[in-house]
Amino acid sequence: MDDNVWLDRREVPVIVVHGGAWVKPGIVTEPVLEGLQRAAEAGFAVLDRGGMALDAVEAAVVVLEEDPHFNAGRGSTLTSDGTVEMDASMMDGRTLDAGAVASVAGVRNPIRLARRVLHDSDHLLLAGEGAQRFARGHGVEMAPVDWHVTPEQRARFEELKQEAGARPDRRKLGTVGAVAADVHGHVAAATSTGGTAFKRPGRVGDSPLIGAGTYADDTSGAASATGHGESIIKVVLTKTACDLMGSGKSPLEASKEAVSLLGSRARGEGGIILVSPDGRAGWAMNTPRMSRALFRRGMPGPIARV
Ligand code: GLY
């Protein structure tokens, strides 16, 4: 069946996940598809028992953060210092409440920390050592700093270090994200990343920025972005896409238009996933590949694509 038939259906609950733009073809494809299917199943299980979209997107992103094939949580890229600095955010379409963390290390699942920031702090975005202290103080699971570093990312760091005048690698990003619409008519979005490979320490991309990497509003829809963060920020990609849905575009139309703007106005590369509160979904990218999966009521299982 044509993917658009599944995407364009007005039926809840539904979850869409992505595993980033610029996925490497060949050997990593199967584990990436399997990881996305497991993530979509975890999120859908929450929705199917009447759970909230916010819980569903968190459950899906945790699966992808635990999976070393994605650039988020375990498997994150390394900075030019050889360290891990992770970003994550989530947003609740019911209230516009959001939680985000930037440049954190040693936190097993940055998206769980973003959830605690949303619920248990007076702030929206916490960064660095302050965010880590907040995590320890709120019982968020920590991990040894090296737990997040996979042999593949260490090798890639060594490769980039050898290149004279190495610059952050914009390509092969594996940022992860999820958007969902629940049976109560609410939407939510979540995004998590290790950022660009060989980034300057302290660099923060779009993923923890509300409106850039993540946005959700019950009056329009929910969106999560992947791709070159500096470009995504310039066109506030997820808010732009949600505004397009709010003005009457379908998620498919809005995703295409937003990604087209990313290319034409910011010369940026990336992709986006969207859902509307009535359960329609959309995705688009201007990179050769973006890994993604969708699971909605009525399907025997998730469909996953790279
Ligand atoms: N989109 C992820 C990043 O640029 O950090």
Look at the helices and sheets and give the structural class.
Answer: alpha+beta
Bound molecules: glycine
> Total number of helical segments?
9
Q: Strand arrangement, largest sheet?
A: 4-3-2-6-5-1-11-12
Q: CATH class, please?
A: Alpha Beta
Number of domains: 1
In the predicted model, the low-confidence regions spanning at least 5 consecutive residues are none
Fill in the CATH topology.
Glutamine Phosphoribosylpyrophosphate, subunit 1, domain 1
Number of strands: 12
Distance between the termini: 16 Å
The helicity comes to 25-40%
Which strand-content bin applies to the residues? 15-25%
**At the fourth CATH level, what is the homologous superfamily?**
(Glycosyl)asparaginase
* Shape, principal axes of CA atoms: globular
Radius of gyration, whole Å: 17 Å
SSE order, as H and E? HEHHEEHEHHEEEEHHHEEEE
Architecture, according to CATH?
Answer: 4-Layer Sandwich
Instruction: Give the overall pLDDT as a whole number.
Output: 94
Main beta-sheet annotation:
8 strands, mixed
Short description:
By secondary structure, the protein is of the alpha+beta class. Helix content is 34%, strand content 23%. The longest helix has 20 residues, at 29-48.
Describe this structure in words.
The two termini are 16 Å apart. The strands form two sheets. Strands 4-3-2-6-5-1-11-12 form an eight-stranded mixed β-sheet. A four-stranded antiparallel β-sheet has the order 7-8-9-10. The protein has a single domain (3-305), classed as (Glycosyl)asparaginase (Glutamine Phosphoribosylpyrophosphate, subunit 1, domain 1), CATH 3.60.20.30. It has nine helices and twelve strands. The chain has 306 residues and is of the alpha+beta class. A hairpin with a 3-residue loop joins strand 7 and strand 8 (221-227). Helix 2 runs antiparallel to helix 3, helix 3 packs antiparallel against helix 4 (110-120) and helix 8 crosses helix 9. The model has no long low-confidence stretch (mean pLDDT 94). The chain is 34% helix and 23% strand. It is globular.
